Amino acid sequence: MPGSIRAGLKRRSRRLSARRLLGALAVALALAACGDEGTATQASKKASPQPPKVTGNGVDRAFVTEMVPHHRSAVEMAELAKRHSERPEIKQLSQEIIVAQNAEIERMRGLDQRLADAGVAKRSLGMTAHEMGTHMDPGALRRAEPFDRAFLDMMIPHHEGAIRMAKIQLERGRNRTIGRLAGRIVKAQTNEIALMHQWRIQWYGVTGHEHH
Question: Rounded to two decimals, what is the model's pTM?
Answer without folding.
Answer: 0.73
